[in-house]
Amino acid sequence: MKIKSIVDHTVKNIEEMIIKGKLKPGQKIKEQEISTRLGISRPPLREAFKILEAEGLIRIEPRRGAFVSELKDSDIWEIYTLKLALYSLAVTLAIEKIRDVDIEKLGKIVFQMEEIVAGRGEADVIRYEELNNFFHDAMASITGHGRLKKIQQSINNQIKRIAFQSFADRKHLESSCEYHRRILEAIKAKDRKRAEKLTREHILKGLKMQERIRKGTFY
pTM for the whole thing? Predict the structure, then answer.
């Protein structure tokens, strides 16, 4: 296996451990334990750590090692208010440039999200979150605004672990899915105001859900 693919595989595995809470906020990530578990050497593991640090998922302290980063209430507020501005801007800019092929792509993403929500048993929340990000990344790509897309991706990486918590709530998951369908329909109709309004509502509901989780009123 090539070094790049080993590093990518390692990033994905550690990221999943953080998102699912197997590695807790503030916890030290033991190099030997991870390298043995994944069957890799230290160099690609350290490269993976650099990527995860850039994504805001871990922090590296000189002579101490790597630790899972912690998100304070103020961090969550900052991230969600940035999402509110960026996603709203993306929808506004994209609606002027969107093509039939773009609408078809967004439709396929939303359809896959709906399949997860409609499925029996426990929903695949990690896959749903991936599709959620694909939807908004695709929207940013349509705008042709490179910096917007880059900042948006960075924010999404930082929030993955808490998005996983919120989507574990079935009602929130269903609401999120419904909002994506309604946003897509507004985009198809070239209704900029409605698409932006729905996008803002969608993000604010996510922030409200995080506030419930932090206050211990999740259920």
Answer: 0.81
Q: H or E segment at 58? A: strand 58-61
Residue 2 pLDDT: 58
**If you search the block for the tokens 């990000």, which residue do you land on?**
133
Answer whether residue 27 shows pLDDT above 60: yes
Q: What is the chain's percent helix, strand, coil content, to nearest 5?
A: 75, 5, 20
DSSP H helices in 98-169: 100-118, 125-143, 146-167
Distance between terminal CA atoms of the chain?
A: 44
Cβ(195)–Cβ(91) below 8 Å:
yes
Q: What percent of the chain has pLDDT over 70?
A: 96
Q: Which residues have a Cβ under 8 Å from the Cβ of 74 and sit 6 or more positions away?
A: none
| Of 74, 72, 70, 43, residue with least CA distance to 59 | 70
**pLDDT greater than 70 at residue 217:** no
**Would you say 172 and 217 are in contact if contact means Cβ atoms under 8 Å apart?**
no
| 159 and 100 within one domain | yes
Q: For residue 180, give the CATH number of its domain.
A: 1.20.120.530
* Token output for 135: 């939807």
Q: Residue 67 — φ and ψ, nearest 5°?
A: -130, 145
193: left (phi over 0), alpha (psi -120 to 50) or beta: alpha
- The residue range of the domain holding 90 is 73-215
Could you give the CA distance from residue 83 to residue 199 in angstroms, rounded to a whole number?
10
